[in-house]
Amino acid sequence: MEREGRAVGAASGDLVTIGEFARSSRLSAKALRRYDELGLLRPALVDPVNGYRYYDPAQVEGARLVAWLRRIGMPLNRIGRVVALDAGAAAVEIRAYWARVEAETAARRDLAMYLVDHLSVEGRTMARMPDNAEDTGSSGSAGAGAGALAIRCAALTDIGVVRTANQDAAFAGPRLLAVADGFGEGGAEASAAAIEALKPSTWGREGALSAADLLNALEDTADSAARAVREAVAPCAAPDGSGTTLTAMLWTGSRLGLVHIGDSRAYLLRGGELFRITHDHSLVQSMIDDGSLSPEEAASHPAPALLLKALVGEARPAAVPVASRPDVRLREAQAGDRYLLCSDGLSTVVDTADLRAAVVTADDPQEAVRRLVDLAREAGGPDNVACVVADVVVEE
User: Fold this and answer.
1) I need a surface site. Which of 128, 209, 257, 307 has the fewest CB within 10 A?
2) pLDDT attached to residue 143
3) Per-residue model confidence (pLDDT) at position 289
4) Mind listing the pLDDT tens digit for each residue in 240-263?
5) Is residue 259 classed as helix, strand or coil in its secondary structure?
6) Domain extents in the chain
7) CA gap 114, 211 in Å, rounded
């Protein structure tokens, strides 16, 4: 019996056998048969008698693209979308995919580093602890003999100057700080549902959670928020076009658990310096990260709000698909910290220096959120605004 890959003479013209094509494309014959079955790379000709596959040498570039995309870990179903696009659209799709990979890798790296630090500290504590010592389970910056830490906070949303509806939501309470920026037909419902889903979570019970329990609670909370958004926008005519960002901090008495997805932000004011502690999940931010766009150029980018990650109604078949898995991480709190959470209706129109000035000089969180909303309106108020300011204080 003849092997697949033997030439069929004039019937194939300038076509090459699967064996020859495998060598030139650096793909195995087995991979080529698999890609044919999946519709990723069809042969130019299949012999109707014996089923042998033949390829046009012009298909080599497409075959190599498939191989390269597999090497960066892109799933086969997404590769199918990429190879069907023109070169420019394919480049956008690949950039979006890799930005998502980097964002997810960064989140896993942060979690890994936290666990290394946490386990190292616990190991040293256990090594020092005498056999008759009592382990009270306390942790965090309050320390032995210090008063318990608590949160004093305020939240405010504003429709802005231009928009006719407010799709932003904000919440500030003793256990939860959150902002969400909805988009699409069901944006208002999505942002409200995301925050509401956080309120009954197990982290809210009295008493501080251990680091391990808090990490588990954060994962559960993120899943609950994603489900709530899907359910909230399901009645919309196009549920896949509706969703929300979410930036939330969950307070346990000594630690803050951060849940973040999208381009809403969280900042920390400590020692007089304002630090951004979240990373935007946007195409523009990914271009800044890889050096193809400067922060100054980003301000005039034609698609500044194009998100790579958000809580959405459904997976949508768009040029830049949106992932819906939030980042989660832990932060140790210190007395005197002041946190700002805000939607991009504030951060994109008010520069960091003015944000810092408003956060630093305000006497309390209520005054701070009023000042911040005023700054956004003074800057033209092109979008809805949501902000939360919270102080970490020692309870009296």
Assistant:
1) 128
2) 41
3) 76
4) 889 999 999 998 877 888 999 999
5) strand
6) 11-83, 96-128+149-394
7) 10
In angstroms, the CA 31 to CA 323 distance is: 28
17: which 2 tokens? 């056998």
pLDDT band at 210 (very low <50, low <70, confident <90, very high): low
The CATH fold assigned to 11-83 is Multidrug-efflux Transporter Regulator; Chain: A; Domain 2 (1.10.1660)
Q: Strand, helix or coil at 267? A: strand
Task: Give 68's DSSP letter.
Answer: H
Residue 253 · residue 208 · CB < 8 Å: yes
Does pLDDT of 197 surpass 50? yes
Give CA angle at 267 (262, 270), nearest 5°.
160
Mean pLDDT of 47-58: 87
Say which residue the tokens 């523009």 belong to: 284
Which residues are within 8 A (CB) of 143 and not within 5 positions of it... i.e. 6 or more apart?
A: none
Task: Tell me how crowded residue 99 is: count the other CB atoms within 10 A of its CB.
Answer: 21
Count other Cβ atoms within 10 Å, centred on residue 383. Answer: 24
Q: Running DSSP on this structure, what letter comes out for residue 42?
A: -
**CATH number of the structural domain 96-128+149-394:** 3.60.40.10
